[in-house]
Amino acid sequence: MRRIGPFLVTPNPAPSWGWSTFVSLLALTGALVVAGGVFWAYGVSPFVAYRAIAEGTFLDPRALPEVVRMAIPLLLVGSGLVLAFRAQFWNIGTEGQLLAGAVAATGIALFSPLPPALLIPAMFAAGFALGALWAAVPALLRLRWGAHEVLTTLLLNYVAAYGVEWLVHGPWKGPSMMGFAYTDLFPEAAWLPLLGGTRVHWPTLVLGLGFAVFGSVLLYRTVLGFEIRVQGDNPEAARYAGIPAARTVLAVALLSGGAAGLAGVGEVAGIHHRLLSPGQVSMGYGYAGILVAWLARGNPLGTILSALLLGLVFTSGDVMQVALQMPFRVTDVFNGLILLFLVGSTPLLQMRIRWVPKAREKAWMPSS
């Protein structure tokens, strides 16, 4: 315990949901204030910028479907990463795992002899499998040789990206695409159905919501979930209790990679209907999913709200580009600031701060 002015700060090993929400909102507010400085540097008043963003998102009924559409891959990636982070498996490779899922779906759509009715289920199954396999490689490298997964998962992002580039410029380049680096269009049986008048591919949305619910049930209602939580909170206690670290690490790697793979399927089958270059398949959803998981503070159900928030940030990038004539990549600045403030606010979660004037400290101490 220590005193800072009229406040007493004590350890808080198990922060409440309310305190976690307050700290997250405080971090977001700080990020928005600093982002206002970025607008000012571009010669745009922060007040004008935020008003334009509000009018182009909250107050425009046409923007809501786009927010949801952007949130779909973020929800899948984020809910999978919550499981990985809870077990202290730092999967930074969901961008590559998403691309792996997109490649698997494309292979099924263009080259599979399956009947039309089975194409979409097979694409999702293949996308999950290849995304999971892409994440399993770093997990096995960690378990067998102690290679740190931050490095191995991150480097595999580049392998996946260059693999996609090779496919769309080489063996899978579509003859009907008139020289563009795309594959041919998928057959219509491999197109995901959309909500009327929008680009919201509802099967992937249902999968995302279902995965968030599944993750919550897994964490708090199953033996494996208990092992994941113990492994993440106290690895030494997990070892003492006989919890096999290899099983939990491999399980969360497969689940987080598979969820990202599903997101990749949704992008190529629901939006583009072909495989394109990596930057067109994913607008950085794999990296932004890290923000979604951090905002959720370890709760898979929390990714539903945090994915919508980040979907709003991505949609606001279009507003900034059109209404404010600012580079679209300012969205990356937003995301970076949010991550910076979220990580920086983490120590606050482990503190309990009470207003206790020095004159009342003795009276307060016995009741603590």
Describe the structure.
α1 (17-41) packs across α2 and α12 packs parallel to α14. The protein is built from 15 helices and three strands. The termini are close together. The longest helix is centred in the middle third of the chain and has 30 residues, at 116-145. The chain has 368 residues and is mainly α.
Key phrases:
368 residues; 15 helices; 4% strand
What is the percent of helical residues? Answer: over 70%
DSSP summary, beta strand count: 3
H/I helix tally: 15
Order of helices and strands: EEHHHHHHHHHHHHHHEH
Write the layout of secondary structure elements.
Layout: E1 2-4, E2 7-11, H1 17-41, H2 46-56, H3 63-86, H4 94-111, H5 116-145, H6 149-169, H7 202-221, H8 223-233, H9 235-240, H10 245-272, H11 278-281, H12 285-296, H13 302-323, H14 330-349, E3 351-355, H15 361-367
Antiparallel strand pairs: 1-2, 2-3
Gist?
This protein is mostly helical and 368 residues long. Helix content is 70%, strand content 4%.
